[in-house]
Amino acid sequence: MIFKTQIAKKVLATSAALAILGGSIATPINVLSVEAAEAIQTATVLTTGSELINKDLSLVNNRFKNFTITGEYTNTPNAASGFELNGTDSNWYGLNGQTHRMVLKSNPFSYYFPETWAISETAGFTAVTIDTEVGKSYVFDYSYSLSNSNVKTADSNSKLNMEVGVSQYGGDKIKYNTYSLAGNQETTLTDKAQIEFKATSTKTIIYMRTGYTHMNSSGAQHFASLDSYSVTQVNIEADIQKEASVAVNQLFNGNSSGAAIKATTDLAAIQAAQLLVYKVTDSYERSKLQVELNQAYRQLDARLAIANLFENGNVNGKIKASTNQEAINAAQDLINNVSTNPGRLPLQADLNKAKNQLTDLGDGPSVEEEAEMNARTLVQALFKNNDMTGTIVTTLAQRHIDEAQKAVNSVTNPTIKAELQASLKKAQEQLNATNAVKGLFNNDNVAGTIKTATTQVSINDAKVLVGVVTNTAKKTELEGQIAEAQKQLDAKLAQVEEQARQEAATNAVKELFNSNDVTGTIKDSTNQDAINNAKELVAAITDTAKKAELEAQLAEAQKQVDAKTAEAAAEKARQEAVEKAIEGLFNNNDVNGTIKDSTTQDAIDQAKELVTTITDADKKAELEKAITEAQKQLTDKETKVEVTGKVNPFILHQDRYLSGTYTGDITAISVDVNGKRYYGGTVNDGEFSFYALDKIANPGDVVIINLHSADKVIQKSITVQIKEATKVTQAAYNVKDSNITGTFNNPDITKMNIVVNGTTYWGGTLTNGTFKFYALDKITSATDEVTMNFYNAKNELILSKNLTITAPVVTSGEITSATVAVGDKNIVGTITGDIKSFGVTIDGVTYNGGTITSDGTFKFYVADKKIKADSSITIVGYDKSKNTLSEVNIVVSK
User: How far is CA 747 from CA 229, 427, 725, 751, in A?
Assistant: First the structure.
């Protein structure tokens, strides 16, 4: 629907210009003022959905049904394949029966690591899989805690660590946080945290991996847990704003709200964008989008009004017969309502076509009159109710003043121009002051709270600009807003000071207690001075409730200090009595020295009874240590047998047992192989053995034998020498060879001898794992008995090895017949024995070959040798080594 205003011909008080600046004459189509849009709220800043983690803690096959428990991170968790949960503890499940890592029965994200086993690192991993929608936003809220207790025996390099995160199922980690705490620090680390993420798959893993390093078996305790955990879907305000902004921009050419609307933009498209703008909850962002959307409304309104001036709505055709100046003025009002030149110019061009046609008909204002009317309309539109002596409209922006200034510059009448310029100046002063005051507040909302950045300097600067404003009502309004900003700033400064006082007092009171727990016990270092200092800080607090809370905590600390003071005096007296008794056990009262000859078991027992009354753990340990030393010296004096031991070298792949001897009261042994301890073996009558064939594999293995007394204390440790099995390889040796040669792999071998038929010969050359021994004059027969003996530098026999002697092979054979005639193809005949081939010499030329059959006959091919009746022929028979066994001269038959 197109709205028209009834106006005088020479005064263009356009409803459009007023509408864009918050005027009240008319609102075209469905244009909303910024104030109206701000009144609409259909969503919150952050909309959260229901809990997505199924927290059912029931078990299936001794495993949590919904939570996977394993030892390390996995991106494909499966509850059914996780650790089996069992054990006898009423509160904790052991992981596969292990006692050094346990999970709380009532919380799968809570782990307990008691130091009951020596291991370089242990860990626990808990995961739960949730259904998610790709691209949607979620929040994982959790609180966590890390703590240690009884840590005096914990390794100084130990660490308790935790990783909490979100991972794509079957893919990469999305986000995670890590925390750690020194394992020997007896304290608690606790806090809350949040992980925001966008889902990248339809299933997402929520996980916690915690571990402890350098664990020993000393009994320290370590805890890591998520004390609370929750995942919900969220609708982030930024996503809503983006969707609305895209919808608004798509109404305009180039998808830019400063341009003209698209030819396809209609009321339905604008209203669809309007619904999205309604959902934006941030008032500042919603106001900006509404202003941009209003431009689309107004451009559409002006476009329809201009089209209505022409026949068939064709702006390139003729104006209607009913089109008059009033209708054109109304359309001009709507164009003036469009605040951006890119949007206004095409509309103005189309309207000018109608104006020109109407002027040609003799109906229309002069150019000067139109300029004056246009300028006055734009200046009046800057003020409420078009009153140029009043206050500016609430939606006024600098661009509106700039556009009005351009119109005023076009006025040629000096009197009218001066009047309009003066009003324009007032509008500028009011806008400057208004913007300065708004700038003090969040989102420019003077009814809200001041910005964090607002200071006294920025308030004073705003006061200067307000002082220039001449309109009393506007000035009073702005001064009231500045007063509110000043009030909030003063309150904020006072609150900051009070907060600082409260924090200082709270921290001082917490520092009086162990682990800062005001419900627990005070620290050993807390004394009356510390309490008095905290009292002074609490006295400075003005918040009565907070002061009462801290005073109650101080009263508890005072109560404990008083009790500690009384107990300290009694404890001191007990300690002095015990120290005197213990010192009396030692010569010259020196507990670091030796006990007196007169010290008896009764005296030591009496000192032990006195020590039981001591409550100071450190002092008690110190005194017990001195008594233990006295007891040890007394026991050693009466029964001392020195512990010694010797272990035999272990030969790899040869020895089955580690063995050795000992003296002293040894009842058990253990073996350390590369840092891993094994218990077992036998100990009896000064000898020990330990099966080690399956434990020692390499020459570089570090092996230590530990000798234990009856109290399981290691009395002596001995390093074992690991050797490879000695191997000697003899090269083939035949009778009449000059040297026996071969190789050996034991670097301890430095000497050798050979024993031939009972006679020993020393000598030989041994270097770089090889040996050579001259034996030509010592071994005469393959049946000689020869032993090679190898020694170390101490003449200790390392290895004996029999020499293998190869005897020469004796062969024999005869050519019993051999005949050939002129023209025969072969020499034929018979043989015996080991003859394997032949050599035939014919007239001085020798040929090799021949064929022998199993029945002892042979033939030698000679058809190509041209034998004559007088040829000289000799045949020689050889064994397989080409040794000559028989030689026969052959007479050629005729």
Answer: 65, 106, 11, 11
Fold of 85-236: Jelly Rolls (2.60.120)
Instruction: Give the C-alpha separation, 280 to 775, whole Å.
Output: 107
Residues 261-278 pLDDT 10s? 999 999 999 999 999 999
pTM higher than 0.85, yes or no? no
Residue 11 is predicted with a pLDDT of 27
What one-character DSSP code corresponds to residue 383? B
Q: Does residue 665 contact residue 634 with C-beta atoms inside 8 Å? A: no
DSSP letter for each residue of 53-118: S-----BSSSSBSS-EEESS--SS--GGGSPPEE-S-SSEEEETT-SSSEEETTEEEEEEEE--S-
Tell me the three state secondary structure of residue 454: coil
245 contacts 282 by C-beta, under 8 angstroms: no
**The two structure tokens encoding residue 420:** 């309009």
Q: Are 838 and 844 in contact (CB under 8 A)?
A: no
| Residue whose pair of structure tokens reads 């040869």 in the numeric block | 654
Structure tokens at 607: 């000192």
Structure confidence by residue, pLDDT tens digits, 332-355: 989 888 866 677 888 888 888 888
At position 219, the amino acid (one-letter code) is: G
Point out which residues pair with 716 in neighbouring strands. 707
Beta bridge partners of 165: 176, 207
Distance of CA 169 to the CA centre of its chain: 17
Q: And the tokens for 519?
A: 């419900």
**Under 8 Å between Cβ of 656 and 693:** yes
Distance CA 780, CA 808 (A): 12
- Region 813-890: CATH code: 2.60.40.10
How many Cβ atoms sit within 10 Å of the Cβ of residue 593?
A: 12
Which token pair is 662?
């000992």
CB-based contact 343:403 (threshold 8 Å): no
Q: Which two tokens stand for residue 492?
A: 């904020």
pLDDT at res. 521: 93
pLDDT digits (tens, 9 = 90+) for 114-155: 999 899 999 999 999 999 999 888 999 999 999 999 999 999
Pick left, alpha or beta for residue 87 (phi over 0 → left; psi -120 to 50 → alpha; otherwise beta): left
- Which pair of structure tokens corresponds to residue 47? 């909309």
Instruction: Tell me how far apart the alpha carbons of residues 740 and 592 are, in angstroms, rounded to a whole number.
Output: 67
Which of 535, 527, 545 is CA-nearest to residue 505?
Answer: 535
The CATH T-level fold of domain 644-724 is: Immunoglobulin-like (2.60.40)
